[in-house]
């Protein structure tokens, strides 16, 4: 019975790594579609979001089945519930990549981005892809130290987000309100994408060490541990691609 339960947890872990790979591919392709006004690439990101949503639904169904059939408690319950939360974070990242692609599609055949913001958006897209790859590797390797690094890694996205606002508010911005709205939304989408990747990393830390992060578990402290540390036993998978 215990071996069966562990096998099912392994399957969920593999699905989470797959979701992180898909989210990384989506944000990379959405950024390219945005910069190159590539309508086919944008459409691919938008339609491909359904794959992430389906995997999330599968994980949700598996989690509820595990809860009903195995009735896990303490650490096992923590793993199942936290894995479900990670799936929701990763699905939301796919949604955000699709939102970026929809702006590229909406402005096609025109370029969605005025020249002054293109370098900043490119950097945000590259950093978002790197962050989700790192989040995926923390799931695969159960690496809490690497997960802790992500707390600082999304700072660059925040810096670039503020940089966009400086450009928009400068006297040199002559591209109109509509374009400014697009850029404002895009900055927010990239920022939220990175935030969800950090949330995934925090959940990995919780699974591995039992350490709660106050932002993910309101009312908790970093030392409020209720069960012994344990890892989500997931076979190694290279999430960085």
Automatic annotation (TrEMBL):
Family membership: Belongs to the PhoU family.
Localisation per UniProt entry: Cytoplasm
Entries under InterPro entries matching the protein: PhoU, PhoU-like_sf, PhoU_dom
Transport recorded as keyword: yes
Record's protein name: Phosphate-specific transport system accessory protein PhoU
PhoU domain span: 16-103, 121-204
Cited NCBIfam families: phoU_full
Role summary: Plays a role in the regulation of phosphate uptake.
Region of interest called Disordered, as start-end residue ranges on this chain: 218-241
Subunit structure, interactors included: Homodimer.
Organism: Antricoccus suffuscus
Matching Pfam families: PhoU
Biological classification of the source: Bacteria, Bacillati, Actinomycetota, Actinomycetes, Geodermatophilales
UniProtKB keywords: Cytoplasm, Phosphate transport, Transport
């Amino acid at each position: 019975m215990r071996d069966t339960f562990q096998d099912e947890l392994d399957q969920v872990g593999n699905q989470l790594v797959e979701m992180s790979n898909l989210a990384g591919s989506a944000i990379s392709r959405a950024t390219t579609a945005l910069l190159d006004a590539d309508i086919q690439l944008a459409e691919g990101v938008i339609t491909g979001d359904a794959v992430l949503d389906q995997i999330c639904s599968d994980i949700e169904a598996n989690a509820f089945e595990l809860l009903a059939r195995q009735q896990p408690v303490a650490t096992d319950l923590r793993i199942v519930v936290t894995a479900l939360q990670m799936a929701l974070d990763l699905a939301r990242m796919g949604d955000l990549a699709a939102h970026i692609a929809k702006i590229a599609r909406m402005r096609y055949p025109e370029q969605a981005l005025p020249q002054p913001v293109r370098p900043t958006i490119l950097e945000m897209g590259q950093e978002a892809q790197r962050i989700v790859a790192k989040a995926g590797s923390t799931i695969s390797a159960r690496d809490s130290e690497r997960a802790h690094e992500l707390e600082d890694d999304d700072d660059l996205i925040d810096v670039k987000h503020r940089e966009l606002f400086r450009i928009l508010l400068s006297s040199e911005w002559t591209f109109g309100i509509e374009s400014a709205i697009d850029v404002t939304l895009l900055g927010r989408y990239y920022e939220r994408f990175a935030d969800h990747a950090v949330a995934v990393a925090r959940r990995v830390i919780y699974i591995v060490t039992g350490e709660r992060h106050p932002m993910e578990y309101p009312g908790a402290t970093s030392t409020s541990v209720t069960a012994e540390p344990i890892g989500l036993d997931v076979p190694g998978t290279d999430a960085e691609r």
